[in-house]
Amino acid sequence: MRTALSALAVLLTLASSVRAAPVAAPFEVEERDASAVLNTRFITYEDGINKRDGVEERDPSAVLNSRFITYEDTINKRDDVEERDASAVLNTRFITYEDAISKRDEVEERDPSAVLNSRFITYEDSVSKRDEVEERDPSAVLNSRFITYEDTA
Hints:
59% of the residues lie in helices and 0% in strands. By secondary structure, it is mostly helical. The chain folds into two domains: 33-82, no CATH class; 86-153, no CATH class. The mean pLDDT is 56. It comes from Aspergillus niger.
């Protein structure tokens, strides 16, 4: 008797879920707000490409802050912008390896603490900074993200 009641409950649950309205597929929606497309978690790669080609003018800051920016967009924006704030370049999520190298070569003087805290520090930077700084607090060395084996030895 209990088994029959359990089976009936399962069947009723399945039947009620079948009657639920189906969700519309993304391709069925003809018009969408561009900002909504950029902000959705479930955007597809094809949507990103289509929207990129469809929008002629975009705010560069919006492009840099978009989650769904493409590699091609970063290259185009990097080439279009002639002057950039060095700190902004170091802090952008979409910085390229080439940008990090060129910015490192252009900036002659940097605060060592800023270099240690940078996300995009290179191995060469950590080695050159280590050689330039003669005295260091041992506790600071142990807490550095970019500590090397030679530093601990």
